[in-house]
Amino acid sequence: MPGKILIADPVATNRIVLKVKLSAGHFDVSQAATASEALRLSQTLQPDLILISNELPDLSADQLIDALRARPGLPDIPVAVLLADAADADTRLRLMSRADAVIARPAHDALLLARLRGLLFRRNSLRELRQQVSTGTAGFAEDHAPLGHPGKVAIVAPEGAPATLLLRGLDAHLAHRLHLVDARRPFPALSKGRAPDAVLLYLADLPRGDALRLLAELRAAPDTRHATTIAMLDAEDEETAAQLLNAGLDDVLLGVTALPELAARIDRLVTHAQANDRLRAHLTDGLRASVTDPLTGLYNRRYAIPYLERLCTARTPHEGRTPFAVMLADLDHFKRINDSYGHAAGDRVLEHVAERLRGALRPQDVVARIGGEEFLLIFPDLCPSEARIAADRLCRCIAEMPIHVSGAPEPITVTVSIGMVMGGDAKDPEGAINGAKALLSQADHALYASKAQGRNTVTFRSARPAA
Predict the structure, then answer these.
(1) Averaged pLDDT, groups of 10, the chain, 467 residues long
(2) What pTM was estimated for this model as a whole?
(3) Active-site residue numbers?
(4) Counting Cβ atoms within 10 Å, is residue 284 exposed (0-12), middle (13-18) or buried (19+)?
(5) Fewest CB within 10 angstroms: 10, 313, 390, 443, which?
């Protein structure tokens, strides 16, 4: 079932008609005749969406919305208002600033259902983002609401006087940055600079197929796929409006619309887009933090081991496996640094070593800190002779650059021991290795051999078991 909807309308006939329409869309519908009853039922039923009339006897629609937003657990439930055509401009604007949607009566059946489905989709998407951020697995617990900032709005319209007049009119009502884009060639103009928060589609006189294609292109393009979208259509084009909403449009206006109302709707969409962007940014930062070592900024074991496992199973188009090198590098006598100069000095050394390792690698190589002073290095597409040269170069790179640390009378010379093993075998489709675990075990044995041979050296160990 798409969701539970609570209807609040003082007229029994209106409630019955709405219930029939919404039930046809497979919604679970409950009814209230007053604002107080709606408040009570919203707490007990926990609806997914609330649809209210602006003619309730005990509270105005905006007062009811404020009361619903103040209730625990209800602030994120979308509220749509059914508004009589006779409502004045001030009432419409006041509701625009509070409601998630304002729908004029009489409501076209398909358009009404499409609007409600869109509201539920956006609410569920927002809730999923919040849940992902709040799980803690991404490294963040809550979304903080920063101060709002001016957004970017793209007006996609055919070139000409109407588009220019629309831009100038909206510029007087919005604090956001507006720019005009030719509807006939929207790309790459929409891809320049910062991605838009909202896109206004001026679709009057545009064939239905072209309108749907344009929306699909916006949803597919990486620079506009997260932007909220609103369309302006001819008054009688309700079927196209319903189709666009079902295809992912966020809001639609039919016929002539006053600029203040259009600006209010755009402003709300920008706010919605920025809230989602903040959550996505939190999630991205959290995911990055979960695979990154906080001291050195290198990848950690959580990233490096799965990467190595994928590399072990990767095949070329000819069903062969390309060779790659795996190295375990461990700082020599690192405990002495901590004991002599303190852990802060030890951390400083680790940061410098990490920086040098990162600077000595190719873009496709991976370096991760997987232990206290132990690093895992993975070199894709590297043959054994090249790998030996790279490992020797790393040893020299670390040893030839003493590190200045606070509390030490002179720079500290640091060396590193490396154990190396080759993975992959382009000539052996069955593979000469048993996966990441076997490679790491062999590299670890090689590392111990380097330590036993006096440190500051490289030991190569074959991944293929001896016959």
Answers:
(1) 90 94 93 96 93 93 92 86 80 86 88 93 84 57 52 91 91 94 88 91 82 91 92 88 93 89 92 89 82 94 92 64 90 92 92 94 94 95 91 93 84 94 63 73 95 93 55
(2) 0.72
(3) 373
(4) exposed
(5) 313
